[in-house]
Amino acid sequence: MREIVNVLFVCLGNICRSPMAEAVLRSKIAKRRLTESIKVDSAGTGDWHIGKVPHEGTRRILDQKGISYADMTARLVSSSDFDSFQYIICMDNSNAENVRKLPGGDKAELLFFMDLLPDEELREVPDPYFTGNFEQVYDLIDAGCDVLLDKIIQEKL
């Protein structure tokens, strides 16, 4: 029996980018009938929104795309995540630095989401909490999650 692959997306407040990526990747996993093989979660490096549902802008675009975000609430990334997740994917450099400051974080293998999309000029996923551009972020996340899922299948399944 194969080990379950665990993916964690990390952003600042865990209400915009990382839960959007969690929902999108879960949807893609379900379409490929891999829900027993790959699990996805998201977390934030800031504690302002702990326990809250995804941001209205994230919910709106996911609703438009028919993607569920049921049972998703914001949580903080923790040192224990380094033992639980094979893929920890940060949305920007600032959040990667915050993860690295956690006990054991200096040894964690972090990925940057935009490294999945090397042809894009952007090197960080813009934070729509500040930009308001949830459509741009969705397009980046949708494309990046396709690449990520192929990478996981190739490397782990």
Automatic annotation (TrEMBL):
One of its GO terms (molecular function) is protein tyrosine phosphatase activity. It holds the Pfam family LMWPc. The active site is at 11 (nucleophile), 17, 127 (proton donor). Keywords: Hydrolase, Protein phosphatase. Residues 5-151 form the Phosphotyrosine protein phosphatase I domain. SUPFAM superfamilies: Phosphotyrosine protein phosphatases I. It is an enzyme of class 3 (hydrolase). InterPro entries: LMW_PTPase (IPR050438), Ptyr_pPase (IPR023485), Ptyr_pPase_sf (IPR036196), Tyr_phospatase_low_mol_wt (IPR017867). Belongs to the low molecular weight phosphotyrosine protein phosphatase family. PANTHER family: LOW MOLECULAR WEIGHT PHOSPHOTYROSINE PROTEIN PHOSPHATASE, LOW MOLECULAR WEIGHT PROTEIN TYROSINE PHOSPHATASE. This is protein-tyrosine-phosphatase. It comes from Paenibacillus typhae. The lineage of its organism: Bacteria, Bacillati, Bacillota, Bacilli, Bacillales.
